[in-house]
């Protein structure tokens, strides 16, 4: 597109990314937590919320008064022990790095796969983009509304860890059957 100065500008560069991770869930999962799309660091370490600056695993550990899980196996175990299913809203999209704001051409994951296999009572989305994409692309098909939670990304620096833990308390209550 042309700018006012007549110079050519374009949308943010991005690459087509196909979601590489399997969902985490079992037949006892009560809540489904959905991010948007694994970041480059998460794809590199082959697990959700893999950027060490992301506070997701610190929040999850704090909710249940546990140590922060150190390995992917520990993270998977924490989720399953506490009846948390984990996946992402998107199966594929064009994205620049980890910038949710750059997402183009989103294709949703089939969350029906989890909803039909586990007794999910609540769906939570981490961050505004995940929430909006879920509401637009998935909720009309599955009929299950989601609760939006604040992003645990380092880009959401305005929220302190303690504030995130308070915001995620509804996830813990639903997972624990309260």
From TrEMBL:
InterPro entries: Hypoxan-DNA_Glyclase, Uracil-DNA_glycosylase-like, Uracil-DNA_glycosylase-like_sf
Gene3D superfamilies, sorted: Uracil-DNA glycosylase-like domain
Ranges where the Uracil-DNA glycosylase-like domain occurs: 22-172
Pfam family, one: UDG
SMART domains reported in the protein's UniProt record: UDG (SM00986), UreE_C (SM00987)
Full protein name: DNA-deoxyinosine glycosylase
Organism, as annotated: Tractidigestivibacter scatoligenes (Olsenella scatoligenes)
Organism placement in taxonomy: Bacteria, Bacillati, Actinomycetota, Coriobacteriia, Coriobacteriales
